[in-house]
Amino acid sequence: MRLYKLCSFSIFLLFLTACSSKRVVLDPITVKGNAPGANIYRGSYSKITDIVHTKLDLKFDFDSCFVIGKAWINAKPYFYPINQVVLDARGFQIHQVSLVNKDDLLPLKYVYDGKSLKIDLNKTYSPEQKFTLYIDYTAMPSKAKGAAAAGERGFYFINPTGKEDDKPQQFWTQGETESNSAWFPTINGPQEKMTQEINLTVPKKMVTLSNGELDFSTDNGDGTRTDSWRQEQPHSTYLTMVAGGNFSVIKDKWQDKEVNYYVDPPFAKYAKLVFGKTPEMMTFFSKKLGVEYPWEKYSQIVVHDFTDGAMENTSATVFFEGMNMTDAQYQDENYESIISHELFHHWFGDLVTAESWANLPLNESFATYGEYLWNEFKYGRDYADLYGWKDLQTYLTSDHKDRTLIRFDYADKEQMFDEVSYQKGGRVLHMLRKVVGDEAFFKALNVYLKRYSYKTAEVHDLRLIFEEVTGQDLNWFFNQWFLSPGHPVLAIENSYDANTKQVTVTIRQQQDLNKYPLYRLPFSVDIYVDGKAERKAILLERQNQSFVFDVESQPSLVNVDAEKILLGEKMEKKSLLQYVFQYENAPLFLDRLEAFQALSQKLLQEKQAREVLIKALSDKNWQIRLAAVNAIDQLKDEEKAQVYESIKSMAVSDTRSYVRAAAISVLSKTFTNRDNQETFQKAFSDKAPSVQKALAAAVK
User: Fold this and answer.
1) Pick from 181, 180, 212: which is nearest to 88 by CA?
2) Residue 40 — very low, low, confident or very high, per pLDDT cuts 50/70/90?
3) How far is Cα 206 from Cα 224, in angstroms, rounded to an integer?
4) Helix (H, G, I), strand (E, B), or coil: what is residue 184?
């Protein structure tokens, strides 16, 4: 699920320009300081009744925004015998509750309080005995208890009477965390998994979607049609979905499985532009994980007024309406990371589900890292590291740094959907990958997915598998990164002694050790001499620690954290020349960005810093080019003249629309004494909204 992680371009620009059995091992830090839920334990829900299969027959009263439902729930005791079943059902009118007894319905006694349906069974059932409940009900999602907030209704009618001219008539659901119980009786929580059948009776003009495959459609002869959807593999109840409306369905394929894109009809011709990489993503993730995409089909649907960014309902992901895009809008934001995020959830979250909301990062951190993996595969590490860095900045500037990744003391389960579960978690997984190595990392993920397929897992299951695969004890890593809050704050210095021919790197951990761990950090240092780098592996595990290396001559650069994997704050003292050398010679995007940001503070005073800015105009990463364009004003007049032709060229031919737009703005504000009309005229053929906006401001 994506609650907030849509691209915030203005914030991003600010960053760039501102230069054997399960054993529970909890650090004491974990259970304090995580207000407002401190001293509350939020564990896994108890499993009392196990829903095996749910069948729903649904009709809809669009005038009243009611769901008229019949439910058949096949269930059994989880372990202990039971004579009562408690189902979650919010805001219902209950018309009938019965036990299905062959061809008969045996009425059952029940108590309903508007939130929970307590049903007395006809006898005590043992774990080997299944039973089927029949419930006839009307769900009123907007009146459900706890549904005052729009995000908790579960079922949403959009323009239900069709009277709004600017909005289509639709319905859709959003179940995570526990809102599906507002439209069908079930058991809330990620721990409950079931198979399902859903029959949707709708006006014939409507297209429907649900989990699994469309078994058949029936014309009812009264202007309605019933679509019957079936999913044979079990999934968590919060992942059940239905949707309907006037959608164009663009068909695609992956192997022998349907891949479909549901969009508003005006955007049908752009659907494959927006979603067309999905089959390639499915192939990549299947091969990378060694587990093929596990569901019957994959559909992606764009709805109006969605409460979030997107939701990974099993085999049927829902997206916010911004994904209805033209080819022009696609140039600015293609939202490809959201597409890869939600698809990766179909392994991490849908196939293997976090067993409790406290363990939500087992879903969301992995989906966030799935974005990185796709970007790395498709566009290279330089591109992937840009968005990995963005995730790090999102976490570091959040108000939630005192929260642990796996947290059992949240005040409200919705608090789990934050920059810690998403962005920090993705960066933690990247560090874990670098600590154990690629082969071990992906082997462990393969074992995890296969062992817990169609089941739930917790963080200790993940750790034990990584230990099984690597043969290493990894408690230290999981304790400090998954079960403790915060991050390291490192002060880094290096010096060279020409007499002893030694480089000394001194690192101090400056985080508050009363609140946060003393970290154990394995990473690398690259020492550049005569243009060549020699890599040194170090292990930081003390508050103040020095590392000494024999080096024949004065290094041009000592590059600490050479792989740029550390999650935390780093304050490092380097000279101007070292940063210039780093930008020109170190291999990674983050090397260049780090150097550019440091040198941008010295543009007015140092010519060499300005020379790096000029070189950055042709950097292979568009975000560095963008930052360089936006800093042009800090050049001297003769230097501005030197780059003028480059800026003109970037305004019409840079590969990234935001860079083109920034170049147009610079031409109109910084080069007012030049004739830019020919360049602006060429740019008018550019469809990107950001470019058109910049042009409008430039020529007004």
Assistant:
1) 181
2) confident
3) 9
4) coil
Q: How far apart are CA 595 and CA 38, in angstroms?
A: 41
Q: Quick one: tokens of 517?
A: 């761990």
436, amino acid identity: V
Tens digits of per-residue pLDDT, 646-683?
999 999 999 999 999 999 999 999 999 999 999 999 99
Is 472 in a helix, a strand, or coil?
A: coil
Is the distance from CB of 627 to CB of 601 less than 8 angstroms? no
Q: Is residue 328 assigned to a domain?
A: no
Q: What does the mean pLDDT of the chain come to?
A: 94
Domain boundary residue, one of 209, 244, 279: 244
Whole-prediction pTM: 0.94
Clarify whether residues 504 and 441 are in a common domain: no
Specify if 178 maps to a domain: yes
Range of the domain at 147: 48-244
Any idea what the Cα angle at residue 43 is, between residues 118 and 514, rounded to 5°?
Answer: 150
Amino acid letter at 202? V
Phi and psi (nearest 5°) for 437?
Answer: 95, 155
Distance spanning both ends of the chain, measured CA to CA: 42
Q: How far is CA 562 from the centre of its chain?
A: 26
Question: What are the pLDDT digits (tens) for 568-605?
Answer: 999 999 999 999 999 999 999 999 999 999 999 999 99
- Helix H or strand E encompassing 228: strand 224-236
Same domain, 444 and 492: no
Indicate the residue among 244, 267, 300 that finishes a domain: 244
Q: Which residues of 141-164 are buried (b: 16+ CB within 10 A; e: fewer)?
A: bbbbeebeeeebbbbbbbbbeeee
Judgement on whether residues 30 and 104 belong to the same structural domain of the protein: no
Look at the chain and report how many structural domains it folds into: 3
In a domain, 271, yes or no: no
Q: HSE (CB half, 13 Å, CA atoms) of 6?
A: 14
Listed in sequence order, the residues at least 6 apart from 172 whose beta carbon sits closer than 8 Å to its beta carbon are 155, 156, 158, 241, 242, 243, 244, 245, 301, 303, 306, 318
| Cα separation, 532 vs 537, whole angstroms | 17
Whether the pLDDT of residue 325 is over 80: the answer is yes
What is the rounded CA–CA span in Å between residue 160 and residue 331? Answer: 33
Does the residue 27 lie in any domain? yes
What number is the average pLDDT over the span 689-697?
98
